[in-house]
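Escalated from tier 1: iron/sulfur cluster holo job.
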Amino acid sequence: MLFNDIAYGPIHSRRLGVSLGMEIMPLEHKLCTFNCVYCECGWNEPVAHPKLPTREEVKAALEAKLSTFDFQQAKLDVITFSGNGEPTLHPDFNGIIRDTCALRDRYCPSTKVSVLSNSTQLGRKNIVEALWLCDNRILKLDAATDEMMRRIDMPVNDQLTVETLINWLAQFNGDFTLQTCFLRGEHDGKIIDNTTPKELNAWYRTIERLRPKQVMIYVIDRKTPEEHLEKISPDEMEQIAAPLREKGVPVIISA
Ligand code: SF4
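Tier 2 regenerated the structure:
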């Protein structure tokens, strides 16, 4: 599933409310530093010269939407960057976020700006700076052990470690939402399961260390590139959330 417009919607997002989606990755294919087994956009494909929308095109597409939106009749909770890959890979990500915040301030000051990111670019100063300008940073950590993170997310940089991701996430001093997709299954003859006691304990310890303001957990919802994946039941998701809630950590479940 690919998004074919730079600005699309608004749509009702199960996690974010009424959301105007922003696509700043190529419109024809996915571009990502992960290759998650559950990715709704499918597997990564090698593309020699990915064509990204320019900063000016993104600004124009957003302004066209906001200037014609009837804010008297409908509400817009959030402008959300996600879509066909990892938005922070755009070379003008910082400028795009600045433009977006300026347009939001002009047309709909109470609308939030959110970015869903896989966290792999948090070692770059201008990306972190741009994320600080947003209202919500929704940052992925699918597993807290290297072995399971690599099996689920299959990072393009095979040297990437969970410890590196955690240190990058720690820069936000808890002012972010940690996002995890729970799943079980098999890929390439290897077991995928971030719900075992070992994986969950490592994940709980990481949350205790990072203290995110919110945890968002979800299950696979659409067709996945790896077919041998199992959707976790709503009951089990509640059980996963319970120890965090007991400690006062807000948890949103999309199951
Ligand atoms: S990080 Fe997101 S876009 Fe990238 S492969 Fe994973 S699910 Fe797909």
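Residues 7-254 form a domain with the TIM Barrel fold (CATH 3.20.20.70).
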